[in-house]
Amino acid sequence: MNRSLRPLVATALIFAIAYALAVMQFPSMFSTRVLGNFLTDNAFLGIAAVGMTFVILSGGIDLSVGAVIGFTGVLVAVLISWAGVHPLLAFAIAIVVAGAFGAIMGLAIHYLQVPAFIVTLAGMFLARGGASVITRDSVPINHEFYAWISDLTIRLPGGGRLSIIGLTMVAIFIIGALVAHRTKFGSYVYALGGNPVSASLMGVPVARTTVAIYALSSVLAALSGIVFSLYTSAGYPLAAVGVELDAISAVVIGGTLLTGGYGFVLGTFIGVMLLGLVQTYIIFDGTLSSWWTKIVIGILLFLFIVLQRLIFVASAPGEKTSKA
Amino acid sequence: MIRRSLLKLANPQLLALIGVLLINWLLFPNFFRVTWQDGRFFGSLIDVLNRGAPVAILAVGMVGVIATKGVDLSVGAVMAVAGAVAATMVVAGYPAPIAVVAALVVGLLCGLWNGILVAILDIQPIIATLVLMVAGRGIAQLITEGFIVTFTDPVLIYIGTGSFLGFPMAAVIALVLMIIVTLIVRRTAIGLFIEAVGVNRAAASLAGIRSRMLLLLVYSLSGLCAAIAGIIVAGDIRGADANNAGLWLELDAILAVVIGGTSLLGGRFSVPLAFVGALIIQAMNTGILVSGFPPEFNLIVKAGLIFIVLVIQSPLASRLAPPRIKPVAKAAAK
Lengths: 324, 334
Known about the structure:
- The structure holds 2 protein chains of 2 kinds.
- By secondary structure, chain A is mainly alpha-helical.
- In chain A, about 70% of the residues lie in helices and about 5% in strands.
- By secondary structure, chain B is mainly alpha-helical.
- Chain B has one domain (about 15-320).
- In chain B, helix 1 packs parallel to helix 12 (about 270-290), helix 2 packs parallel to helix 7 (about 170-185) and helix 3 packs parallel to helix 5 (about 125-145).
- Chain B is globular, with a radius of gyration of 20 Å.
- Chain B: This is Sugar ABC transporter permease.
- Chain B: One of its GO terms (molecular function) is transmembrane transporter activity.
- Chain B: Its main location: membrane.
């Protein structure tokens, strides 16, 4: 077996064991109903996490994701409910706006040569502030298109339902994996994350790739915001606060190295599912308070970071992964 | 020599603070009016000092961390934990000084935990401190058992809302802390060591600096500062709110440090200017509030401020830092 697949296998194994343990305690968790809801409930997080995977693979970080989700939700809701725009057109506008927003962040990161973390922090303030300036209240969306999409589900044997937003997430993950592992852009992202200097010496268009990565992350965040508005049928400026942290956690738990250049989009999928499992388990248990979610996610994060270090120290003796 | 270079650096930040205060004065003519009432000063200016104190304290701790090319995302969560510890112990009947010391020790331990992850396990600072940022609020809620623990202990309330020589206690604590930390880093070689580690950790270690020890020290200091801020915030609202105490203040603290001219790439820092940076942020907050704009504008103004600071810093940063990716940028520009 390829030893670089080890973190991915470890994550998958931990998910399988955790799920098996949960099913042993609550046999009803092993049903298509729970699995279908699993996909639906985590769809917006999963879509945002795909974008975050690309950003982290390139050695960066995007803190603006949650704010862009909130902003998109408000923009779409306002366009549909106040301006009477058709939802599909509103979606297109939101995605274009978010793409431009991400591209500007990418330009700033590349040309001002500042850490991605501080630029996307400014982006987070801007998007969250912009959403709050448009409206301070939750804007409900009552459109027949929304009702139609909500009814659009595939029934599974056993009473489960695959919703269109759950399927969207799965599709985004598959496309994301193909882009990361099978296209030129994907190899550029890995090269950039491995070492930006040697990447540029090898002829990787660093500027264009950086801009594309952050534009992609914002576009996926916008898509996630659209999915979130379908999920809640409303737009709220304070929606999805802190989702960027969940997305980063999912990426790290999925085995992607935070220094960049190493990881799998599929791993992020398992990471998202593991986070979803923790939440579902706590709901099933009923006696555990919701704050245990945070503690368990923190512990998982810690375990996986240490695991990554151990694997990389073992596989590359003498070579320090310190990025200058 | 050191003093002269400090003064030279101080100009833009101090000018910015004066500028923000003047804009506030134009928007709100009574801004500079300070009155004496019930044995303490009152007024918008005092309010800036008082409300800015928690972020200023966080910024004092954050400076050292950022100067070593790190970042501490967990300070907001540590504030919540420290506040929860202090409040719960006081409610359980422990005397206030013991509760305060316990909260400070817990903060120190949180910082030490971050330091161990960064210095000994060699984990990237952003992610090492993310663990505690995510888990910290859960731990705080575990301590308070999910409630907002309210207390009536006079000592804790004095720390949060009392006054010393007419000035708010929180501001006095922040100022004293800033002076002590400044003296420690600038009157000993520690500041120089921190800068050396920030510029190049491997080289600093080879030159004989015990960089692990130093990293443990700066992260512990950051945790301690967060605990102090947490106690102040808890005392201010007379209760420990595990969900909201210090929420997103880590971002304000980082912003304050960046405004203060500390390089995010490590190796250049100033504790007093980070303090001034925190006051600039608070002056803007207060200005937006007193002039009647909706508080949401605050976020947009902050985003604009970060952008301006980044643009100002960028040519300087690329001149000081070795041109690593710069040739590519030029090639792409052509």
